[in-house]
Amino acid sequence: MKQKLWVVVLSAAMLAACAFGFAACDEGGSENGGQNGNNTEQGGTEQGGSEQGGTEQGGSEQGGTEQGGSEQGGTEQGGSEIVTTVGLSYKINDDGTAYAVAGIGTATDTDIVIPSTYNGLPVTSIGEAAFQNCDGLTEITIPDSVTGIGSYAFQNCDGLTEITIPDSVTSIGDGAFFGCSGLKSITVEAGNSVYHSSGNCLIQTGSKTLIAGCKNSVIPTDSSVTGIGNDAFSGCSGLTSITIPDSVTGIGEWAFFECSGLTSITLPDSVTSIGECAFA
Fold first, then answer.
1. Looking at the chain, which runs of residues are DSSP E strands?
2. What residue segments make up the domains of the chain, in order of their start?
3. Do 113 and 86 form a contact (C-beta atoms < 8 A)?
4. 37-48 per-position pLDDT tens digit
């Protein structure tokens, strides 16, 4: 009887020991699983942080693109970047497809380089009186995107010494260079279908009208000029003498207005009309 009782007690003890072992295994597995889960979550957080950093870097690149736009003076032409003037004011055209240079704005450059594009649209014109009275302006670079220059666009720009009209320009308003007393060189790029230059004179080819001159102008004698347009030499105080060839039949209004240095002028008998205040 005692032997039987001892076997029962021994069996019960063994069962208790096994149960305790199983419980310990389950508890260890849970703790280990929890640690693994924490490691996984921590790894996920770190990976998420890297992705977030990538997004922020991408944002910086996007900002760089905006900074490199026309507003900041970057314009590509012929595969190379040209530094254009920052601060000019612009006006969008009525149809919303292009811009005109409206004025000097906040620009402080004396050498103005007009961009070919602004805010993603082409700059196609220089507005009326856009640079009027900018006597500090010494040089202007006009891109091939420009097709028109408004009336009195450069009026009284005393410091401007030379002007180059690109072959794209097909319209120039009256008095565009009125009062540019320092102007001594006028050039039209080859290939322009409307204008050409000769003897530092700006000439409208079809009408044979001299529309702008300077103090160094010599009117050509090859019959390419039959008329001197309105305001052609207005305010050209550096002009001291001029010979008008016998191909010229008409002189426009205010053509030699305020040419205070003009002491000699030869008028041929071919001239049959002289406009109001032509020599005032």
1. 74-77, 80-83, 89-92, 99-103, 111-113, 117-118, 121-126, 139-141, 148-149, 162-165, 171-172, 185-188, 195-198, 201-204, 209-212, 227-228, 241-243, 250-251, 264-266, 273-274
2. 1-67, 87-280
3. no
4. 344 344 443 444
Coil vs helix vs strand at 275: coil
Return the amino acid letter for 41: E
Q: Report the pLDDT value the prediction gives residue 80, as an integer from 0 to 100.
A: 60
CATH architecture of 87-280: Alpha-Beta Horseshoe (3.80)
What is the distance of C-alpha 9 from the center of its chain?
A: 100
| Helix H or strand E segment including 46 | helix 2-67
Amino acid identity of 255? A
Model confidence over 90-141: pLDDT tens digits?
999 999 999 999 999 999 999 999 999 999 999 999 999 999 999 999 999 9
CA 264/CA 256 separation, integer angstroms: 12
